[in-house]
Amino acid sequence: MQPHGASATLAGNACHLELAVSTQFEHRTASQLHLPIDIRSDTVTRPSPGMRAAMAAAEVGDDVYGDDPTVNRLQAQVAERFGFEDALFFPSGTQSNLAALMSHCGRGDEYLVGQEAHTYKYEGGGAAVLGSIQPQPLENEPGGGISIQRIANAIKPDDVHFARTRLLALENTIGGRVLSPEYLRQATQFVHSRGLCTHLDGARVFNAIVKLKIGEGAAVAGFDSVSVCLSKGLGAPAGSVLLGSREFIGRARRWRKALGGGMRQAGVLAAAGLYALEHHVPKLAQDHANAEYLAQGLRALGLHVEPPQTNLVYVEIPAAKTADLKSHLSSQGILATITPRTRLATHLDVPRDKIEAVLRAFRDYPGWD
């Protein structure tokens, strides 16, 4: 039977939508060739055609009511992979971390954190401003961790003069550096013995997993909660998943709502996360190899480059040359944040041929003379 009336109109609209989406994917693939080479961060990745198709086809519902099947599938999959009871999808890692801190700590409590950590340095002071939680920043060791002795010295005694120390928050990777499972075991066991909880900012935890060649559960052993970001090296346009016990996630769900993170038909974003988990995790190894290749090429120019462990390359640039070098790279179609300690990021949208183009642009910079 041929559709007629309103049914025919709906069927026709669906066909037009499918054709438009397909054409958009094809146009995006062709136009991608003309985009700048963006090495400012791994957050700049664009959804691939396959990811966009998964998003367009996502089954959705109202996630605030718990009715979005794609969000529910993502939460269940990430919880199972990392060995946690429950999980909760957030729009961003910043919000996921903040909800975790607020679920662990009450008003006037304190959390211990590295001075270089994202939750302390780069998240707008949210723990203090919105959570009334006092951060106790501690110096990071060269490898990225915090010494056990420094942690022990920072834990406050049970005294009305002091904030109550409730939590240790670590980050892996931190500045591209990988914290070893042995260090994480020692740190989490120690603070648990002192009655503290533990949270891991796992914005790039899959980089650590791929680098160490370990399973997800082994990478987060000892943590009471973990935030897993999907929008950095994994290439999703948005989203992080917070992991913990059912009771903890219940508290975090209330804070997510209070923080404005309750989304409705969020399955379109969750589908991107599921696609990234299925297709993009193994590709992180290539990002790491490209970072090492980039580092070697920059060293050949006489620049001091820190040995990269994952996908972040740190290179020293003379302060007098930073503005001019940034302008030169931009003229070559390369976006980079150039400072005396420049960070360059490799990611899905920067394959080896584009790394070669970056190195050519650095070599051609006349200011080295």
Shape: globular
**Known CATH architecture of the largest domain:** 3-Layer(aba) Sandwich
- Quick one: how many beta strands? 11
Query: Strand fraction band?
Result: 5-15%
Q: By CATH's scheme, which homologous superfamily of the largest domain applies?
A: Type I PLP-dependent aspartate aminotransferase-like (Major domain)
Query: Looking at CATH, which topology of the largest domain would you report?
Result: Aspartate Aminotransferase, domain 2
Q: How far from one another are the termini?
A: 76 Å
**Which stretches of 5+ consecutive residues score pLDDT under 50?**
1-18, 25-31
Order of helices and strands: HEHHEHEHHEHEHEHHEEHHHEHEEH
Give the overall pLDDT as a whole number. Answer: 92
- Give Rg in angstroms: 23 Å
Helical coverage, percent range: 40-55%
User: For the record, what CATH class of the largest domain applies?
Assistant: Alpha Beta
| Biggest β-sheet description | 7 strands, mixed
